Known about the structure:
single chain, alpha+beta, seven-stranded mixed beta sheet, four-stranded antiparallel beta sheet, 5 helices
Amino acid sequence: MNKNNDLKRFTDEKLITSILLSFIIIFIICPVYALDSNDIIAYDPIDNIFVYKNRGNNFDGFILENLKNMKYKKLKNRETKEFYLDGNIAKKIASHKGLDFESHKKAKIIIRKLKDDVYRLELNNKLDGYWYRLKLKIPDGYSVRKILRDDGVAIGNIVQIDRASGKTIKEDIRWYVEDNTLYFYDDPISGYSVILSPPQPWFSIMVEEALNSAGQISSIVYPYNGEQDLIAGINNLDHIGRIGDNGIGQDIDGDAGSKIALR
Length: 263
């Protein structure tokens, strides 16, 4: 009788462990981007400036009026713009959005190098519901592999293009690299790990065939540096973006790459 009870308890414990592991795996491989980062005012605690970020010309009248004399930058090959605000304009836009300007700028950032390819950023005095722009200088030759929040969610960009018209349907740029500096936006958690790829002497190219496609190419990934790239995410390296390939790379539409085929 005791043996049967022990066996049942052992079986139940294995079942519970399996269920828990399944939830953990789902959590790890399915990051969720809960908020859109367009039409936001963000505080940069490193440069001590406020930045207004939005895509295209989707501005309400009040904000558009206040941005007239502000310097701005349009991100390369994108519709997203960053406007660099002086204190007076930042206060007006923050108030317009119902934000506490003085509390917003109390945030402080701590940056630590853990390894050559791993950096730790910790944000103190942050406020929930407020956006921040963080930045990190990237060593020469390195590239950004992943920006990972402490809750396990990876910060990523979303770009969807209508292949028929060439128009951008959706664009949410959460991070980019310029002049060896990583910039990223978040409605923050307390800490982030930035994982880099070291300089690579050789680059490969990966070609992915779509499912049930008679040889149609769905992804061309370059530069491709092995299996670890698939784990980390290759959206920004996929130069085709067809759907129907188990979510590899970008998923733009069913026509992407339709005129390219393998025999």
